[in-house]
Amino acid sequence: MTLDRDRIRDDFDRLAAFDHAGWSHNSHYHPYLLRHLPNRPKTALDVGCGTGVFSHLLATRCEHVTGIDLSGEMIRLARERSVGIQNIHYEQADVLDYLQPSRTFEVIASIATLHHLSLETILPRLREALQPGGVLLVLDLYTPENRPDLFLSGLTGMIASSFYQRWHQVPSPSAAESAAWDAHGAHDVYPRLSQMRQVCATYLPGARVRKHLLWRYSLTWRKPA
Ligand SMILES: C[S@@+](CC[C@H](N)C(=O)[O-])C[C@H]1O[C@@H](n2cnc3c(N)ncnc32)[C@H](O)[C@@H]1O
After folding, report:
1. CA distance 69 to 47
2. Domain boundaries, the chain
3. How far does the centroid of ligand 1 lie from the alpha carbon of residue 112, in Å?
4. 72-118 tens-digit pLDDT
5. Residue 195: closest CA among 113, 108, 117, 119
């Protein structure tokens, strides 16, 4: 394990304590991602599953779901919250160790996780792990291209975010939660969409990279059959 992985794992072990069910900037896009699923897939992998919120949704549509996460605390909570759900299995693992040639999936999903990895390393590994005709679904954060983009996406995102937070009655984070996210965020680096499109052209030709309002992009790709 590299030092960076240790730090990321420790950050999320700490952040797990603040996890709350309900609306979030990520869950807002769950219905969008689910619309891209193939019909009744047999196997799905949720990379960086956290407490398993999206794994639960996948489990209503896929025969079997595996959720993996670097953080033991996240996996502990995911297991606790999935008691009685027979078709989800969780494992604490680094995705780069977990992906083996013998492990292939019809669907691979990953939410707010890929920015912790090198895109040049993880995208070809995910491509290999997808079965022919399988679908990759990614949601993650991006860095604006330039100052006008920063201003515009910052402003429109802020207006939309405060509307949705009120609408869904999201409680304000405690000082301890904000401090833990700030400490983690200090190390986070998000790709620009132009960079994302460039890497996709190399590793996932034909992938669709779409910019969304709440400071996120989605990447959808179907592996040729
Ligand atoms: C921001 S959280 C998102 C969790 C969940 N996908 C969600 O939408 O709520 C990112 C998660 O990715 C996990 N993670 C980061 N790097 C990872 C890696 N190399 N392998 C597996 N999980 C990883 C973290 O432990 C963390 O739980």
Report:
1. 7
2. 3-222
3. 7
4. 999 999 999 999 999 999 999 999 999 999 999 999 999 999 999 99
5. 119
Residue 76: is it exposed, middle or buried by C-beta count within 10 angstroms (0-12/13-18/19+)? Answer: middle
Q: Under CATH, what is the fold of the domain 3-222? A: Rossmann fold (3.40.50)
Distance from the alpha carbon of residue 21 to the mean position of ligand 1, in angstroms: 16
Q: What is the pTM of this model?
A: 0.96
Atom of ligand 1 nearest to the CA of 110: 6
Give the tens place of pLDDT for each residue, 124-144.
999 999 999 999 999 999 999
Q: Which amino acid is at 136?
A: L
- Give the CA count within 13 Å in the CB-facing half-sphere of 151: 2
In degrees and rounded to multiples of 5, residue 139 shows phi and psi of -130, 130
Which residues surround ligand 1 with Cβ inside 6 Å?
8, 12, 26, 48-50, 53-54, 68-71, 74, 94-95, 111-113, 116-117
Q: Which one, of 92, 19, 86, lies nearest residue 53 by Cα? A: 19
